[in-house]
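Before going further, learn to read the protein records used in this course. Taken together, the tokens spell out the fold as the letters spell out the chain. A record is reproduced here so that you can trace the correspondence yourselves:

***
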Amino acid sequence: EQKNQKENFNMFKRMFIGAFAILAMTTAIVATAADKPAALNFKAKNIDGKEVDLSKYKGRVILVVNLASRCGLTPQYQELQGLHKKYNGKGLSVVGFPCNQFGKQEPGSEAEIKEFCTSTYAVEFDLFSKVDVNGDSAHPFYKHITSLETKPKGAGKVSWNFEKFLIDRKGNVIARFEPRTKPDAPEVIKLIEANLAK
């Protein structure tokens, strides 16, 4: 009988330890999910092919732009670099995703895109590998941010190169601007500065 009691006690102990381990794991998973805002709970390859966890931008204000090297709006690179120089030290990250879905205006390889950006516009802000931003093949990050009802544009497909999304320090997508809205337009600057001040 004493042997049975000991076996029962050991079995109960193992069950308790197992249940505690499961609870600890679940808590850790939930905590990790809570630590990563929905918009930053993605990974993407940078222009050099290295995988980057977008949660690295948590706590910063982020301006996300889909880019193209042969577009009438390509000179916006200059304004994006200007924002990077002026506000990066204050907490702004400009993040560029080259995309070839609009008029095939980003046909080059990652190496060619990087060379163009650095030699033509002295780009220092973060560049990622070429992605689709619309359709079934769209990057999951873009599928998420385009699904949100974000002012002033609202939800829906990216319309052209250089559409802009602004994400606040908590990882909330707070604004979406049309391609022709310049990166340094007053309404963009006002929102950037207001959120950097938070």
